[in-house]
């Protein structure tokens, strides 16, 4: 079948491409008009999503709206004369010359390893390829690592140590074939929503399919499980070893498979001899019955598929966590068949592509290893250079530690935001300050890392770039440009090539198109486990996405690996790994008694440089938040919605505390999207070097900040996001500052909502408050004002034509939510609105989170309707969808709807 890449009419154009968020790798059709992206919808021909998109993917076009681009994108190169000075524009030629000169000078003065390049799983495969070649082949350093180190390196090491190659053996179709699905360390509903939709379809069609979820938290995914193993953080290996013990005891292992296709089972069998259900229950905190039940379902199922992600990977024992789960598959022969096998889920859209081209400190092109002299020699010959340096490169945490120590002088950061995403932020920010020269190549102007950059290079982004990405099931998809890059932005590969040319490496980097780069990458895979020599660029264009391997002569890619029981090890046998329970790197103690777990929200993506510009994506959670058990909050004297101070051995952070039944006592959960990495620790898995972002020991207390400010305003869309950035900068010195857009935008009057919440030990200065008010349109004439000096309260409102347009409350107050809903509702006010000036005149109502982002349906609306709907859970869901429409569009909120149905009683008639 030939799938049209682009179609156009006089008025509009449609371009097939891929979503730029998670590793599901959904196909999208981008609609554009006159050089502007106007819409996006799921690509019905793409095998990853068959036309569906989640709440993030379906709003991609809104992130590319002109008013968003003009206020948030980096439009031309910028530089600082000196640290702390204002950024100034410069032309591309000078910017590239400057960077090339600095790279040469650093290399000459301090050696090539004084340079560190930190790239991203957001890059396309072709970007990754040229940056890897630039570092290892031109600059002569292996100091190139990716933020995929924070995401997938334990999965890489887990696969290599057991199956022999970094190749996920299963595929998405296996979700439909599996009799039992084990989801471990993954909140699929939030992190990979379209796979969750696939799983929901299967569970509707085959209710007998069993779902086991392994997670310390009652996540949206865990809540839907047939069996939720709510284990203690860091006890995954103990659980997997315990399951193997029971499987052995019950005679449920596949001895023939073990004998024929594996080696190394004896020490593992010895290891798990003592992992009795009782001992496993003691370590994991689970009950023995649940452990026995999980083992029984695994052992008696014809096919078991495991899906796993950061809960296993982001751990100081990440590689062993992965290996312990893969051990179970090998011991039971649950691999290489439809519905069977381990399938790691990639967090980022192209973590896989980066691994394929060797874009990490310990890897080389086409799954070669830097540590192997033979692999280095092969790559050197392939590139036509004398040698690839043998010195190990610095991985992510090591790179920033080296910069903090002064060993790395020049950091070139590409398409990532380490001043937000790396653990132990205080050290990372010190490293960025100490580095002599920091280059940031970015699409967005205002990321946290931009503050530290000496040179900013504007990069093209989604909708503007050409190339390929590989998703979690080894499927390579084309990424296509629908419009030209905004401003002077350039594709990332182009910037790397331009710098290489200035370094005298034009012959090594002769590329003028991404296709030329991909063809070189393709050739490097010949004879390797990921051989793609049977694919071509026109094939990807005409026939659509393809799975690797697909060697020359093959007519299609391979859906599953190891179907013949031959693994990618030298003797073809898979290797059991003797995995021992290790626990977390930082156990809780009397000073730091809580266990902090981190994870994703449904509607936000990583540091929110893109999703954070849309008000509708804050409907579910609109402030930096920590979820706590209600009993813990009561014991600590923290009321729901109050600010709490979280501190670890590395730093502290103020977050809004919300009571939640989803976390166990003495455990708390904070979304990763806000600035929580001041708390997390950089300790990493010794094999994968992936840091333990998932767990840290934390102390919690009420923040006790006496001064507060809450302000909301409707602002013209063309300036609201600029105002937001200005306010964020202005309020940085305050202990707590949150400023986000709100509402579905822009509204009929072309406005965006902006919400600001501040808290501090003492009142902010009059200049700061004046500046805030001016920015929010609360200065000049036509205001309603009230000041209560005794209570230290100030209230300022702007009301026009009987509608509340903006308000700012400062001091002590408790009616902000009522004013907020009044402002959001755009309701006409009764009278002249003067009563709103009176503190307490409007009753306080808690904010009701938005559940359905597409149709803007709140939890309160759902809870009002639900008691009137009777029947089975499926009938009530259908009734709810019929009544309010929620969950009928992208479907991302269906897991939350099911949860609300579970907890909402039916009215008695
Ligand atoms: Fe994008 Fe959502 Fe698909 Fe992930 S699941 S690729 S975020 S549309």
Describe the structure.
The structure is a single chain. The chain contains 30 helices and 37 strands. It is an alpha/beta fold. It folds into six domains: 71 residues, Phosphorylase Kinase, domain 1, CATH 3.30.200.210; 205 residues, 3-Layer(aba) Sandwich (Rossmann fold); 191 residues, Dimethylsulfoxide Reductase, domain 2; 109 residues, Barwin-like endoglucanases, CATH 2.40.40.20; 131 residues, no CATH class; 54 residues, BFD-like [2Fe-2S]-binding domain (Arc Repressor Mutant, subunit A), CATH 1.10.10. The strands form nine sheets. A seven-stranded mixed sheet has the order 6-5-19-18-17-7-8, with helices on both faces. Strands 25-27-26-29-24-28 form a six-stranded mixed sheet. The protein is globular. It binds iron/sulfur cluster (SF4). Iron/sulfur cluster (SF4) binds next to helix 8. Iron/sulfur cluster binds next to helix 8.
């Amino acid at each position: 079948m030939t799938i049209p890449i682009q179609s156009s009419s006089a008025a509009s154009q449609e371009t097939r491409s891929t979503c730029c968020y998670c590793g599901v790798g959904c196909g999208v059709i981008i609609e554009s008009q006159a050089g502007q992206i106007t819409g996006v919808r799921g690509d019905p021909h793409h095998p990853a999503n068959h036309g569906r998109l989640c709440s993030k993917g379906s709003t991609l076009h809104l992130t590319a709206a002109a008013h968003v681009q003009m206020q948030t994108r980096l439009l031309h190169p910028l530089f600082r004369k000196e640290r702390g000075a204002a950024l100034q524009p410069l032309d591309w030629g000078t910017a590239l010359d400057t960077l090339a000169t600095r790279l040469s000078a650093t290399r000459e003065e301090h050696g090539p390893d004084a340079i560190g390049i930190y790239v991203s799983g957001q890059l396309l495969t072709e970007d990754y390829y040229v940056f890897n070649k630039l570092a290892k082949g031109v600059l002569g350093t292996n100091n190139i690592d990716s933020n995929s180190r924070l995401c997938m390196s334990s999965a890489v090491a887990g696969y290599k140590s057991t199956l022999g190659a970094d190749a996920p053996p299963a595929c998405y179709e296996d979700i439909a074939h599996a009799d039992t699905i084990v989801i471990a360390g993954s909140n699929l509903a939030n992190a990979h929503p379209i796979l969750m939709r696939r799983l929901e379809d299967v569970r509707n069609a085959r209710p007998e399919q069993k779902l086991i979820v392994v997670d310390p938290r009652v996540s949206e995914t865990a809540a839907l499980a047939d069996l939720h193993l709510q284990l203690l953080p860091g006890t995954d290996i103990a659980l997997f070893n315990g399951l193997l013990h029971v499987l052995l005891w019950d005679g449920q292992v596949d001895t023939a498979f073990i004998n024929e296709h594996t080696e190394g089972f004896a020490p593992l069998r010895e290891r798990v001899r003592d992992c009795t259900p009782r001992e496993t229950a003691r370590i994991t905190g689970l009950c023995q019955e649940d452990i026995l039940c999980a083992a029984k379902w695994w052992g008696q199922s014809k096919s078991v598929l495991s899906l796993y992600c950061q809960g296993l990977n982001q751990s100081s024992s990440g590689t062993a966590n992965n290996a312990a789960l893969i051990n179970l598959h090998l011991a039971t022969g649950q691999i290489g068949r439809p519905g069977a096998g381990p399938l790691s889920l990639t967090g980022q859209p192209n973590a896989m592509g980066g691994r394929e081209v060797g874009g990490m400190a310990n890897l080389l092109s086409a799954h070669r290893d830097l540590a192997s002299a033979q692999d280095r020699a092969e790559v050197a010959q392939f590139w036509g250079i004398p040698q690839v340096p043998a010195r190990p490169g610095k991985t992510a945490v090591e790179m920033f530690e080296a910069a903090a120590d002064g060993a790395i002088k020049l950091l070139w950061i590409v398409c990532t935001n380490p001043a937000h995403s790396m653990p132990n932020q205080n050290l990372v920010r010190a490293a960025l300050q100490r580095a002599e020269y920091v280059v940031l190549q970015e699409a967005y102007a205002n990321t946290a890392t931009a503050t530290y950059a000496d040179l900013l290079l504007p990069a093209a982004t989604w909708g503007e770039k050409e190339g390929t990405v590989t998703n979690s099931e080894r499927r390579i998809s084309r990424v296509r440009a629908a419009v030209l890059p905004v401003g002077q932005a350039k594709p990332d590969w182009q910037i790397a090539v331009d710098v290489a040319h200035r370094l005298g490496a034009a012959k090594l980097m002769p590329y003028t198109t991404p296709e030329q780069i991909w063809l070189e990458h393709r050739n490097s895979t010949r004879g390797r486990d990921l051989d793609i020599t049977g694919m071509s660029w026109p094939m990807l264009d005409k026939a659509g996405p393809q799975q690797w391997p697909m060697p020359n002569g093959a007519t299609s890619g391979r859906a599953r690996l190891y179907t013949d029981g031959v693994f990618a090890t030298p003797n073809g046998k898979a290797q059991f790994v003797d995995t021992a329970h290790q626990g977390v790197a930082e156990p809780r103690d009397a000073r730091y008694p809580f266990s902090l777990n981190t994870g994703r929200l449904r509607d936000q993506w990583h540091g929110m440089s893109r999703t954070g510009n849309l008000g509708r994506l804050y409907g579910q959670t609109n402030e930096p938040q920590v979820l706590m058990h209600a009993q813990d909050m009561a014991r600590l004297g923290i009321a729901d919605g109050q600010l709490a101070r979280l501190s670890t051995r590395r730093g502290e952070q103020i977050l809004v505390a919300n009571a939640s039944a989803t976390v166990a006592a003495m455990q708390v959960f904070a979304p990763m999207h806000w600035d929580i990495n001041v708390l997390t620790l950089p300790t990493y898995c010794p094999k994968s070097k992936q840091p333990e972002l998932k767990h840290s020991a934390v102390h919690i207390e009420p923040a006790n900040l006496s001064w507060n400010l809450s302000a909301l305003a409707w602002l013209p869309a063309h300036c609201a996001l600029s105002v937001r950035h200005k306010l964020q900068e202005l309020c940085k010195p305050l202990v707590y500052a949150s400023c986000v857009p709100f509402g579905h935008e822009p509204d009929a009057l072309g406005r965006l909502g902006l919400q600001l919440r501040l808290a501090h030990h003492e009142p902010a200065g009059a200049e700061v408050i004046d500046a805030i008010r001016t920015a929010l349109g609360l200065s000049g004439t036509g205001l309603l004002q009230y000041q209560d000096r005794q209570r230290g309260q100030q209230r300022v409102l702007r009301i026009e034509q009987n509608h509340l347009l903006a308000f700012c409350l400062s001091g002590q107050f408790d009616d902000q939510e009522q004013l907020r809903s009044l402002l959001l509702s755009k309701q006409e006010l009764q009278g002249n609105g003067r009563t709103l000036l009176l503190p307490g005149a409007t009753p306080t109502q808690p904010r009701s989170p938005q559940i359905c982002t597409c149709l803007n349906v709140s939890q309160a609306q759902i809870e009002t309707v639900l008691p009137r709907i009777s029947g089975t859970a499926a009938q009530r869901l259908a009734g709810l969808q019929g009544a309010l429409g929620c969950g009928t569009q992208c479907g991302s909120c269906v897991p939350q709807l099911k949860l609300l149905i579970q907890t909402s009683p039916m009215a008695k008639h």
